[in-house]
Amino acid sequence: MGELLIGVLPLLALGIFIVWESCAKVKPVSAKKLQKRFLPGDAAADTALVVMVVVSIVMGFTELVNPSLPPFTGATAFLSSILYATVGPIGAPILFFGIGAAGIYLVVARRRHRAMSHS
Questions:
Q1: To the nearest 10°, the Cα dihedral for 29, 33, 37, 41?
Q2: Residue 113 and residue 76: Cα distance in Å, rounded?
Q3: What is the share, in percent, of the chain residues with pLDDT greater than 90?
């Protein structure tokens, strides 16, 4: 059951992201803007943040369902050891969900700021 959940969650997150992006409104671009060089705007930064949020939440659920146990190896072994020693096996999901929550806050704050500055 856990393996099925781990396999389905990323696909579900990808499907939600695709539907969300397909519903976005596209503004027509003027000829003057087309002559200028391309610079990524606020929408690109928001999309990157949303992708980061989705990935961190999926990683949190993955660690919640199938937690990593010591001995830890790799580049993040030190951080994983500290999290496991202080909070136990729930440490990694807390970290990933915290990163996701911070990302959601940043996206909402950026959109509110942009909406207030345009009105």
A1: -60
A2: 35
A3: 29
